[in-house]
Amino acid sequence: MNFATAVQTCFHKYASFGGRASRSEFWFFTLFFFLLSAAASIFDAMSGLGSSFMSTNLVVTLLCLLPLAAVTNRRLHDRDLSGWWQLAFIAIGMLAAGVAAVDIYTTFSVLISAGVAGGESLDAAQKALDQAEASPLGMFSLFGTLFWIAAALCIAATVVFYAVLAVRGVPGENRFGPDPLV
């Protein structure tokens, strides 16, 4: 399957979560989404729309989100895996992002309460962070251990997920339908 056929197929099967998708269909549509999103981001930056609520990149993302989820689902089916696995990887990513957000929020809260935001010195900031690490919430400090664990978990989940999607599908028919390469 070539690039144009893959994009056309994914938009034709816009919300079709059944069946199977070949590696080329998935990767070409993923590349299409990445290139279109990059072009929209550049357009937004050049036109000043980047900070507005209705940016071009937001519209592109909303238009491509459902077909991207559908082709990912079909790609997992080609590996003879349930499409629900993509939710597990999304949940791991959201959990890691949540831990990182709590970590960053806690750090800035400590700095603001110490008056650093009002122009205090960096020594005052370091003292406030040292005191925070000794507190019960000390595990939440900017670039603390929990932050790095969350980041490593997110990266590992992403690598495993894309590795699963990169391996050739089950040859022949499986429980999700016929081989898309036949």
Strand-helix topology:
Layout: H1 3-12, H2 23-47, H3 56-78, H4 85-113, H5 122-134, H6 145-166
Helix pairs in contact: 1-2, 2-3, 4-6
Please describe the biggest sheet, giving its number of strands, its sense, and whether it closes into a barrel.
none
Our estimate of the beta-strand percent is under 5%
- Given as residue ranges, the uncertain stretches (5+ residues, pLDDT < 50) are none
Category from helices, strands and their pairing: mainly alpha
Helicity, in percent? 55-70%
Q: Shape from CA axes?
A: flat
Number of strands: 0
Q: How far is it from the N-terminal to the C-terminal residue, by CA?
A: 11 Å
Mean pLDDT: 84
Count the domains: 2
What is the rounded Rg?
Answer: 22 Å
Order of helices and strands: HHHHHH
Count of helical segments? 6
